[in-house]
Amino acid sequence: MGTPREALPTVTVGHIEELLETSNLPPAEKITFLNTKAEYHVIALIEFEEREDHILRIAGNHVPKLKTENELAVLAWLQKNTTIPVAQVIVYQSGTDNALGCEYLMQKRLKGQSLDLVWPTLNEGQRLKVYDFMVDVLRQLTSREWEHIGGLQFDEEDDLIPGPVLDERFWEARDIEKFFPGETVESMNPVGPYKSYVEFSVARLEKYMHAIRKSDSLAFMREHLPLLEKFIAALKEDEKKLNDTKLCLAHRDLHMGNIMYDVEEHKITGILDWEFSVVMPLQQGDLSRAFMHDLVDDGKWYERKKKMLRMIRGSAKAKGEKDISKTYAFTSEDQEEMQEAVDLLRAIVEVSPRGQREREKMEWRDELVKILEGWTE
């Protein structure tokens, strides 16, 4: 896909000052645009003379309305049903009819700094307390079982209801126009919501097959479409076994940049950026993504993650608690193969239109075909 940062809006201090005025908020003492790694927002710190500072996140036009409304609904659920600390929402708009001309979310500033900035200064004991805290976050998120796969939204009575799936890896409108002219966000992505793991997996496969039919860059995959059709039929036949999972809310981007840490009190003060949070099968949840990534791009993160998980398991064992990592395990080899096939096809469809990973995509194709043939012999 394209780089999300390329679609970030241009906003000035004057725009924010006008927003404060039209939102019945006092004038700011100081407004500072923050240099962060955020890809979907321009972020500004708003400092006031006689009230707490605010953080303003100004969204690009990547996923109009849905992303903002999903985050608001998720935050509301978290505040009502968990003790996970999140930032209080001051004012928001999921449309563009405002002084910024953009969607935005303004929240109270959480105390501290992002964990990636302070992590090198923490000793092993302090790090272990952070791990324990984050394991508790995972436990709270997995303690509630849902009946859909997708996001959350409010209905007309402000009750929470299932919403569409959101994913950072979805095809965005600007990429669709370039690589799949005439298509839409809905025609290229599995939107949902969905009732089961198999239904969601099949929907993903069908969208990727649609892309194969539409793009000449994916013509090398067309001979395998009949095999994919047979694979989908096999999944539906084995639906009961493959649906053996728990559907739980997942943050899906729990790296250290989204965790605020107070170095004075040595505690986590909040978890940020719930915009792409959705209810998912546990096997696709937080431990399979960026959980506790320190954002150091040195090629050694996998080894650090293994060490971190060993520490988490050791802490749980010493306390007589359940190993949280086992919660995210596949319940059968067939279920794991289903997910592997979906992921391989997704990767092929992602990179081919952009002319990327030419050698790897052929290796992925061979791996995929081997799985498909094993299911359809």
TrEMBL record:
List, alphabetically, the InterPro entries matched: AGP_Transferase (IPR051678), Aminoglycoside_PTrfase (IPR002575), Kinase-like_dom_sf (IPR011009)
List residues of the Aminoglycoside phosphotransferase domain.
53-291
Give the highest taxon in the source lineage.
Answer: Eukaryota
| Database matches in Pfam families | APH
The name of this protein is Aminoglycoside phosphotransferase domain-containing protein
